[in-house]
Amino acid sequence: MNRSLLLMNRSLLLKLLSAAVVFGAWEIAGRIPVSFGFPTFFESMLALANMVGDGSLFEAYSDTLRPLVIGLIISAFLGIGIGLWIGLSSWFDWLVLPIFIVMQAAPLAALIPLLVMVYGIGLTSKIFVVCIMAMPVIVLNTAGGVRNAPTNLKEMGRSFLGNERDIVLKVIIPSASPIIFSGLRLGTSAGFIGAILSELKITPTGVGDIITYSRSIADYPSMYAAIFSIIVLAVLFLNLLERIERWLFEGNVRGYASD
After folding, report:
1. What does the domain layout of the chain look like in residue ranges?
2. ω before 39 within 30° of 0 (cis)?
3. How much is the pTM?
4. Three-class SS of residue 217?
5. Whole-angstrom Cα distance, residue 225 to residue 183?
6. Which of 54, 81, 200, 243 is 20–30 Å from 183 (CA)?
């Protein structure tokens, strides 16, 4: 118990030290300054506090989170489902996997004008942008985790008279869970990029509107504050996924780089 508490405190200390180094370097770079358009960390945090105080940041996130959450939910369910099917079926692997490999390698931001032509400039286009950014990495990680599930565990399950459903639910998915959740974390990061990209490229709404407007009037502290808030929210989402994985598959989690 003491060892576990010590490791937890060490992990927290290292995270705080890392944050202090990054924010300190940001403050120094802003004071030099490296660029006219690069504010100090203190100025950016003051702008962030002002946006929180007047409620404009919360109003912006009410627009940003809608396509982001819907897109991530769709990507998670479809991505894991398709990834499981690819990992379990060789013919489906042959038929579908190349599509997602191409999607991950291709510059998908170039498809945004096409989505706007087909679905307009509303919520649907933004959800599609989140999905095309997040889903490929979820599918590929899930398929890889399922395909590489230990053969000896599957044979052991069959020797105990487990049917295929039992093998999938009780052996393959638990053993592949670290890789599946790794894909979800990477997909979440890509989904955040897609949500902000859609607001910058389709219609300037939400946090993307704050970034665009602040840049247009040279209010760089507010622009960097909005970007910083996105990073913080993404980190919170990723930590939430880690906690969900620990809760669902306790004893089968192999650790994180953040630990």
Report:
1. 42-248
2. no
3. 0.78
4. coil
5. 28
6. 200
Amino acid at 234: A
Asked whether 145 and 136 are in contact (CB, 8 A), the reply is no
Q: In angstroms, what CA-CA distances link 5 with 12, 36, 259?
A: 11, 45, 13
At 120, the amino acid letter reads: G
CB-based contact 135:187 (threshold 8 Å): yes
Query: What CATH topology corresponds to 42-248?
Result: MetI-like fold (1.10.3720)
Give CA–CA dist 204/229, Å, rounded: 17
- Cα separation, 250 vs 248, in Å, equals 6
Structure tokens given for 52: 């929180």
Structure tokens at 36: 């006219």
User: How many helices and strands in the chain, by DSSP H and E?
Assistant: 11, 0
How far apart are the C-alpha atoms of 112 and 129, rounded to whole Å? 7
pLDDT by position in tens, the chain (length 259): 455 555 555 666 777 788 888 888 888 888 887 777 788 889 899 999 999 988 888 888 888 888 889 999 999 999 999 988 888 888 888 888 888 888 777 777 777 777 777 777 778 888 888 888 889 999 999 988 888 776 766 667 666 666 677 677 777 777 788 888 888 888 888 888 888 888 888 777 788 888 888 888 888 889 999 999 988 888 888 888 778 777 776 655 444 434 4
**Which of 239, 210, 240 minimizes the C-alpha distance to 227?**
210
Q: Amino acid letter at 176?
A: A
